[in-house]
Specification:
The complex is a heterodimer.
Chain A (H helix, E strand, L loop, with lengths): L33 E2 L5 E2 L17 E12 L3 E11 L3 E11 L1 H6 L6 E15 L8 E11 L2 H7 L5 E13 L7 E13 L7 E18 L2 E8 L13 E8 L5 E9 L10 E10 L1
Antiparallel strand pairs in A: 1-2, 3-4, 3-14, 4-5, 5-6, 6-7, 7-8, 8-9, 9-10, 10-11, 11-12, 12-13, 13-14
Chain B lengths: L7 H10 L10 H4 L2 H17 L13 H15 L11 H5 L6 H17 L4 H11 L3 H4 L21
The chains are: A mainly beta, B mainly alpha.
The complex binds protoporphyrin IX containing FE.
């Protein structure tokens, strides 16, 4: 019996921001990233090396957003907020709630949803996505707590809270192919989580990698794709890598809207979870 | 609709391999509209910059005509046009101003908006921005980057 699961969602997103004005990391275009479903600046499913917000040295930035992903069997909502200082340090908070429709229908659980709280810290080691040839590097950690210990136990996971630690690299390539600006991100992560933590955690860590690309069609529109490798270690609920394609719109420096299409593989024993992702965020 | 995205890693690899084949057919100087286009662009960008209150007194004592001429020459040369920039080096021109990263971004933003205002396509804008970006470390007021004269050797021959 499957059990739980989680799910997810997510996706997409985006990118850098840009816009007129901007800054954190760029000026040319912005590059402050979006808010990932885990709260840290990134795309949708992946975390990037950017520090959230358009802050520079001596500046502070704050923002909040909400994302919703709907697959055939599940729906995930992620609400998140961040604060960042000096384009150096970012703190983020997020709550994810996964609606377990497919599992309820199968009679696998009587719980309609499960939620996860996330607290994230990210520190820019150095560099700059636009102005340093080698890009920008950051390290970060996420502390995650699953609010439904019973469901975690039922799923066969060892713990209901866990930590992710990561090293991320981002580069914004000016005037790349087709005279467009391109965003590249690669992140290496050590994680204890099953499906982000939505179905709990193990005692030991597994390494995983994620990558994202985006191309700025112009300063307001970015299209791209993400791929996130995931551990697969619950015998009764296979976990697969996640992927998405996205379109993000930055009407101005404060707002960002993202639309994505997700492929989340098997979730909680329910295979082939594909679906849509939409996110909106505001920052200043 | 079900679409598998398992091909995303391949897609990511592909986008890194493609574009390299696409070389510009038109020089950037031509794309910017030659001398006249560049002069008009510089006028607009400088006008926006010097009237931006965020810069405070930074441009208060600047000889704007000289700034426009030098900047236009510099962009002309950078973009492959028939000019030779004869002004100060970027480190010299901006030394002592302690330009911050945020100020640099505003300047870039004005340049970009000026290009949009003058109707340049995104590709042309990106080409010019990519030429300006590498000058940032010399323009910024980073104490380590500030232009310094070679230190005089101290009595190298021991001749008092
Ligand atoms: C890539 C970016 C930049 C380029 C290519 C550039 C280029 C130039 C050039 C060619 C000159 C004239 C040099 C001469 O007189 O021989 C100049 C002067 C000046 N620049 Fe920049 N600049 C850049 C960024 C900035 C920024 C970010 C600021 C301030 C926010 C700034 C403020 C000034 C000022 C105030 C002067 C006049 C100095 C004087 O009065 O003598 N520049 N710049």
């Amino acid at each position: 019996m499957p059990v739980s699961s989680r799910t997810t969602a997510v996706c997409v997103l985006a990118a850098a921001a840009i816009n007129p004005a901007f800054a954190g990391g760029g000026g040319l275009l912005a590059t402050s990233g979006l808010q990932s479903i885990e709260g840290s600046a990134g795309g949708g499913l992946t975390t990037w090396a950017m520090i959230a917000g358009h802050g520079e040295e001596g500046e502070r930035a704050m923002g909040a957003g909400v994302a919703r992903a709907i697959t055939d069997g599940f729906a995930l909502t992620s609400a998140s907020a961040y604060a960042s200082w000096n384009n150096r340090f970012e703190v983020s908070l997020a709550r994810q709630t996964l609606e377990l429709d497919a599992l309820v229908e199968m009679g696998a659980t009587d719980r309609t949803d499960v939620s996860l709280d996330l607290i994230g810290f990210k520190y820019r080691l150095g560099g700059d996505p636009v102005y340093a040839d080698y890009g920008q590097f950051a390290v970060g950690a996420l502390y995650k707590h699953n609010r439904d210990a019973d469901l975690v136990r039922l799923a066969g996971a060892e713990r209901s809270s866990g930590v992710d630690a990561y090293l991320a690299w981002s580069k914004l390539w000016l005037d790349g192919p087709w005279h467009r600006n391109w965003l590249l991100n690669v992140t290496l992560r050590a994680t204890q989580a099953h499906q982000l933590g939505l179905i709990g955690f193990e005692d030991d860590y597994r390494l995983s990698a994620e990558a994202a690309v985006g191309v700025f069609l112009n300063p307001h529109w970015v299209v791209g794709a993400e791929y996130r490798n995931k551990p697969d270690r619950l015998s009764n609920a296979a976990e697969q890598d996640w992927a998405d394609v996205y379109l993000a719109f930055f009407p101005n420096k404060r707002w960002a809207l993202t639309l994505g299409y997700l492929d989340l593989g098997s979730i909680g024993g329910v295979d082939d979870q594909h679906g849509w992702y939409a996110a909106v965020q505001y920052g200043r | 609709m079900v679409v598998s995205l398992r091909f995303v890693p391949a897609l990511i690899g592909l986008c890194l391999l493609t574009g390299c084949a696409l070389t510009p057919k038109q020089s950037l100087f031509e794309a910017l509209g030659g001398h006249d286009g560049i002069a008009a662009l510089v006028d607009t960008a400088v006008e926006h910059s010097v009237t931006d209150p965020r810069f405070g007194e930074l441009f208060a004592n600047t000889d704007q005509d000289r700034l426009r001429t030098q900047l236009a020459d510099q962009i002309c040369e950078l973009s492959g046009g028939p000019c030779v920039y004869q002004g100060l080096s970027m480190a010299e021109a901006h030394s002592g101003m302690q330009i911050t990263p945020a100020e640099f971004n505003w300047f870039v933003e004005h340049t970009r908006l000026a290009m949009t205002e003058r109707g340049y396509p995104v590709g042309t804008q990106n080409r010019l921005l990519a030429l300006l970006a590498p000058m940032r470390s010399e323009v910024l007021g980073d104490p380590d980057q500030v232009f310094e004269a070679e230190p005089e050797p101290e009595d190298p021959l021991g001749m008092e």
